[in-house]
Amino acid sequence: MTTTLLAYTPFLDPLNIESWWYFTLIPLAFFVSMAYKAVRVQSFDHYWRNVLMMTIQIVLGIVGLGLLMFLLITQIMPRIAAR
Amino acid sequence: MPDPHTTTPTSESHHDLVTGFDPAALLAAAALPGAGHFLAGDRRRGLHIGAGILGLYATGIFIGGISVIDRKENDWWFIGQAMVGPTTFAIDYFHQSQLKEMTSSGVWLTPDPSVSKYRRSIGKPLDIGILFTAIAGMLNIIAVIDAGFPTRRRNSSF
Q1: b or e along B112-146 (b: 16 or more beta carbons within 10 Å of the residue's beta carbon)?
Q2: pTM for the full predicted model
Q3: Which helix (H) or strand (E) holds A70?
Q4: What is the ipTM of this complex?
Q5: pLDDT tens string for chain A (83 positions)?
Q6: Which of residues 28-47 of B touch A (CB under 8 A)?
């Protein structure tokens, strides 16, 4: 069987992110912060610092929620179900 | 109507002093993210808003491919994506008319790599691409409202 390879075309073909999809949280948080702070800030003097802080807060928040759900599902739920 | 020549030390533009409704800015923001603020005179804000929203939108399409914009396959998500503006409709028209291969009964054909013009996205890339583009649309709703109904901004600590 002959396998034909189709050359990758940016913006037409998808990226192969099956093994590192969770890192896409970083650009998601960055661009959301960028747009939100651009609407909210009164002055752009400390804009990029505000964007960086919000990005870090979003990433840490999502990671924290993920850890919480992991603990809930792997540790707490089995104990509740066993009763 | 406030005097357009009046300024305060902390204000960056006339747009910040005007309260009420600015239909031109609202329509411009709906047509292109950031254009509403740019048209109203708050150019720096408009550029940053546009860069953020369009950057998110473009990143979503870069990750998931053009398949993420599909009015027929992902109709509910398309509503969110459409909030970015006519760009989404243009991309969807191109996708439907130039790239997709379907039978007359609407059954999707598995693209033959030797003849297909692109690889259709599935799984994680599709999910994340759709998420990025839909969130970009929802962020633009905030930008449209802010452009159309300008208010005085508080010092942002959040």
Answers
A1: eeeebebbbbeebbbbbbbbbbbbbbebbebbbeb
A2: 0.84
A3: helix A47-71
A4: 0.86
A5: 444 455 888 999 999 998 999 999 999 999 999 999 999 998 999 999 999 999 999 999 999 999 999 999 999 999 998 77
A6: 33, 44-45
Interface of chain A toward chain B, CB-CB under 8 angstroms? 4-6, 9-18, 21, 24, 27-28, 31-44, 47, 50
**In sequence order, what are the residues at sequence separation of 6 or more whose Cβ sits closer than 8 angstroms to the Cβ of residue B88?**
B69, B78, B81, B82, B133, B137
Mutation for B interface: A21, A25, A39, A40, most B CBs within 10 A: A39
For residue B147, the chain A residue with the least C-alpha distance is A39
pLDDT digits 0-9 by tens, B97-121: 888 776 556 655 555 555 567 788 8
Rounded CA-CA distance B63/B85 in Å is 20
